[in-house]
Amino acid sequence: MVERLELRSALDHAVNEGHFLLHYQPIVDLPTGAAVGFEALVRWHHPTRGVITPDQFIEVAEESGLIVPMGRWVLEEALRTVADWRRILAPAPAPYMSVNVSVRQFREPGFVDQVRAALHHTGVPPESLMLEITETLLMKDDEQRVWADLGTLREMGIRIAIDDFGTGYSSLGYLRQRPIDVVKIDKTFIDDIVVSAQPLALVGGIISLARSLQMTIVAEGIEDVAHRDVLLQLGCPLGQGFLFSSPLGPTEVLAWMRASTS
Ligand code: G
Ligand code: G
Ligand code: MN
Ligand code: NA
Question: How far is CA 62 from CA 11, 12, 17, 204, in A?
Answer without folding.
Answer: 11, 12, 19, 34
